[in-house]
Each structure stands twice: as structure tokens, then as C-alpha cells.
Amino acid sequence: MLQSVEPALPANAKVLADYLEQPPGSDGEERTDRIIAVFRSLRSSLTEADWYRHPGMRDFLGKYALDNPYIPPAVRERELASRSVRQDSSRFAAAWQGVGGEIIDHDVDPADFVSSAEADPEAARRLARRFPQGGPQLLLKMAEYNIVIEIARRIRARRIVEIAGETCFAPIATQMLWDASVLHVTEGQAVGAPRRIAPRTEQQSAPPGRIPVPDGSVDVVMLGDVFPRLPGNGDREFLGELLRVLRPGGCALVLPLMVTSKHSLTINPSAAFLVRRSMPLAAMIEAEMHAHGARVDFNHAITIPFARRYDAATLQARLSGAGLDLQILRPRFAEGFGGPTWDEQMLGQDVPRDLFSASRMLGLCLTKPR
User: Fold this and answer.
1) Which of 97, 108, 274, 314 is the most exposed place for a label (fewest CB within 10 A)?
2) β 325-333/102-108 pair status
3) Are 262 and 202 in contact (CB under 8 A)?
């Protein structure tokens, strides 16, 4: 029966769902047989590389994710036994200080934030399209940008590297930092040629974990959500690359830093365990799960295979001793954030008055000693 379904695999998730829910066939084919056949076909089809782009496929894989026969049994069992994973910034901060870690409070000025948000209207519009769910998420992302810009200004940065899928930060940064240039690095199979995309802004591809710049040539590296999804020991190994490219006194910033009171892995089981090339990733996830006793949380909404949420002890164990100073960055938002003026000036919609204080945002600052 699957022969009639396979031509529709890359395009029509409804056909797959209808096929799975049919009564047993005259040939004795059961639902379990169909599950195995569908996931085997998905695994070998073109859909595997960009499953989340096809109509209905994300919902289909979310509904049938736990039927995926390629989920390693140990990971499935750990997910069932784990409590739900949530951001717990306050407990993390207390635990971080308990293991001797340093916390830097960073005050964010409302007026400077507005200037950053209005620096490049087109970049702001592109950013808004990335956050169609509404204004609060957009403002939190703008807050991350503003914090990086303020720190870059404080250390008089001349060269900034942003590692991200697409850039909305670069045009804003170059408007706010007249002496700085930005290199936007995207993930690729090999190092590509740099391409100018805006005044004082270039774009270049590089393999994961590589920054295609000379030694000691960068003041600030903006990592965003790249750092917590480096598989295996990729997070620690990447510190060596940061140490290579940063100037003395330069820093890398992970904003936001995803933390919790117990080291956790948030996994999309379809992205992590369905794609054929993910088998080494499955082994890495199992190794980290056992090494740190990590909780596991399945999240079918994310498109990346997995994201790491650190607890204080694991963050220190994995990242200390690599030659960079580790500090937790704790943004503090002054009076004046949120409320009616923000509704009118920024979004044209309601903004919770406690948006920033309630977010309990934390960041990680990795500084190269002078």
C-alpha cells in the first residue's frame, strides 16, 4: 500500500496521516507496519533535509513523533522519566555564585534601547517577520542586540563577528557603532568567499565551529542561539576558536543563555533522529545524557535537532579551564520599559510593563584575558 503513498511524501502530510489511520488491510497489514514503512520512507526521501518547510509535515511529525522507531530507547526512556524543562534563572544564578562563578549586572538604558531599535527600520521589519507571534518576543530580541552594542561601545570594538542564520543585527550595529565593521558568518560546508552586503558589513560561510578570520582580529563575537546547539563537545571545542580570533580584552557573548536548575537537553525527535545523517548526533546525545545525568524534553516546535540548557555545575565543568574568563551577564532593565509609550512608539500593540523584568534574561560573557 505504501507504493501509492510514497510519491506524495515530500508534499502531502495528510496522505500519510490517512494512510496510517486506515483499518487493517486484507493482506493483514497493521498500523505498526505502516508506521515503520512511513518513517523508513521519510528517512530516505528528500523531505528529510527540510521536513519543516512542507505543508502539514511539522504537525504530522509532532502528532506521530513518539511512534518514530529511530528514537534511541535510552533517550525515549529518559524523556518519559524527566520532569518538564523550564528556564530557571534565579536558581541558576544562586547556584553559579555557589560554585564561585561571577555575575555582572548590566544596566540597559531605555533611551539607548529605542535608538538601537530605530537605527535601521528595514532591519527591524525583517526581524519582525521572524517573530510573527507578536511584539514581546521581538522586543526581547532587540534587547539582546542592544546589550551587545552597548558592550561593544564600552570596549571600543572595531571588529564584530555575528554567527547566525540570517542577520538583522549587522545593519543596526553599524548604524550605532560608526567605527565598527561586522562580519556575518553563516553555517556552510566549507569556508566561502566574503561578500559585502551593506556598508562596513560582510557575509561569509564557514563550517560549524569555525570563524574565518585571522588570529587576534576580533573584539566581539555574537553567538546568539548557535552555542547551545553545538553537538557533543562542540561547545568546549569552540572555545579554542574563540580564544584564537579574539583580541586580548575581547569577548564572546551568548545571548540568551538557556539555563535551568538541572542540565537538560531539549530535543526535536524528528529533526534529531529521523534524518539519516543524524546517527552520530544520536550517539552524542546519549553520551551527554549519561555523562551529566541530563533531563530530556521533547519539543516538536523547534526546527533544530536539539538545544542544551546548562545548570551551573555543568556549565563550569564543560567550559572552564579553556583560557577564557567566564562571567554570567545579568541584564537589568531600568524604569521606563513597557507601558503605553512602548505600545505607540515600538509596536502599535500592548507590551506588558514587566516584559523585561519577568523575562529574567541571562547571558554568558567569555573574555580573553589581556
Assistant:
1) 97
2) parallel
3) no
